[in-house]
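Appendix B. One record, verbatim.
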Amino acid sequence: MLVAGIMKTDVVTISALATVREALMLMKEHGVKSLVVEKRHASDAHGLIAYRDIARAVIADDGDIDLLNVYDIAQKPALQVSQHLEVRYLARLMIQYSVKRVLVIDNNELQGFVSITDVVGSLMDRALREQDR
């Protein structure tokens, strides 16, 4: 199975210049735990900001959600793969780099997003299909 078969294409993005408060509000509005940070120009890389990044910057490091910008705390560049990659290789990358979320990028353009939940879900689906045989 390829990444294209499990990725989510309805990705919520945010500007790197947005405040952490704006990021939190967008996460709450869309019911997501992470946002893709938009590229600032064509040769830039996408980033990723997740609950963990916000917790570390605001709670652990005593940051201010109105003074910190997304670019201050986002993971950039975010780990990215092609939609044509096999899911088993994606799983290996996620384990090797201890990440829960990966961007799907082709031709330097955002195609989607994959979480470890998507990877495990595809494994569960495959196990159920094999069981029914």
